[in-house]
Design goal:
It is a single chain. This protein is α+β, with helices and mostly antiparallel strands. Helix content is 36%, strand content 21%. The chain is built from 7 helices and 11 strands. It has a 4-stranded antiparallel sheet with strand order 4-5-6-7, with no helix packed on it. A 4-stranded antiparallel sheet has the order 8-9-10-11, with no helix packed on it. The protein has a 3-stranded antiparallel sheet with strand order 1-2-3, with no helix packed on it.
């Protein structure tokens, strides 16, 4: 059912109403697939009303992103202010992110959509870079608050940005992919030192990293390079490069270590890689812009679909 906007609604109130509606419609659909006409219908207004407040769909989307972020941040700040226990406050922040209307994390969904479009839209990319820097600063401030109340910082390890994730297969070592630097780092977690850094082939931007079930190999998705890089886990020696779909991001490995699956956003598919033969054997369509993949084994085994 479409929401109904009062014809006498003040400009500020109408803008907020449009942003609330746009957030819901974008999250339920996508940035690229959603039209301003759809948002106008959902808001109970004519499409020209939207263009009185926003110059384009992009401007509406970016304003929506900022609106949702400001609302979330204000709620988190209030939660922290109302709590005398830092741990309880952070836990409450985590639980409070869920959108009742869409049953999704609105903010996270908008971020994922923006990241998917940023490579093709310079204005969106510029705005997103500034926006994420602001988010990072806020999260760092919250982390500092938690550190002061709960733990002391034992040491710091500087890794070139952007660090996508940290993988600790056995607790004694960690693998850290650095997207901007195009590198993967092997870290001794006991001594907190970098044991080895490997520069991936030209054009590779490491996004996701998985260690094989036997612990012998490391697989890294490379984003725009369109490949999966295979490294030796002990010394990060480059073993192979496997071509897959466009901009592989999330990857998963079957429990038996025979298959790797990569989510390829722009090509709307998932690559299936035979790890014994070290080659892509199939691509299957997977809806619109898949950026992650999760395996749900059946009867404790994973088989090629």
């Amino acid at each position: 059912m479409s929401a109904t906007a009062s014809p006498r609604m003040a400009a500020a109130g109408r803008r907020a109403h449009l942003l609330e509606t746009a957030a819901r419609v974008f999250v339920e659909g996508s940035y690229r697939g959603t039209t301003t006409a759809e948002i106008a219908r959902a808001a109970g207004v004519s499409e020209p009303i939207i263009y009185r407040h926003f110059a384009s769909k992009r401007d509406l989307y970016l304003a929506t992103l900022e609106y949702v972020w400001e609302k979330a941040r204000a709620g988190w700040v209030q939660t922290i202010a109302d709590s005398s226990d830092a741990c309880a406050a952070v836990e409450a922040i985590g639980k409070g992110q869920h959108s009742v209307r869409s049953a999704k994390l609105q903010l996270a969904e908008l971020w994922v959509q923006a990241l998917g479009e940023a490579s093709e839209d310079p204005e969106l990319r510029k705005h997103l870079r500034s926006h994420m820097r602001e988010v990072h600063d806020f999260v760092s401030a919250v982390q500092s608050l938690l550190d002061r109340h709960v733990v002391a910082v034992l040491s710091k390890l500087v890794i070139e940005p952007v660090v996508r994730r940290l993988v600790l297969p056995d607790g004694a070592r960690a693998y850290i992919p650095s997207e901007s630097a195009g590198e993967v780092h092997l870290v001794d977690t006991d001594k907190n030192t970098v044991l080895k850094t490997v520069k991936l082939p030209k054009g590779c931007r490491p996004m996701c990293l998985k260690v094989s079930p036997d612990g012998r190999k490391v697989y890294v998705s490379t984003g725009r390079a369109g490949s999966i890089v295979v490294l030796d886990s002990s010394g990060l020696e480059l073993l192979n490069t496997i071509k897959v779909g466009q901009r592989p991001w999330g990857i998963a490995i079957s429990p038996d270590g025979k298959w790797l699956y990569s989510a390829n956003g722009p090509s709307d598919d998932v690559s299936i890689v035979d790890l014994e033969g070290q080659k892509e054997v199939e691509r299957i369509k997977a809806g619109q812009s898949p950026w992650g993949v999760v395996l749900v084994p059946k009867n404790d085994t994973a088989a090629k679909p």
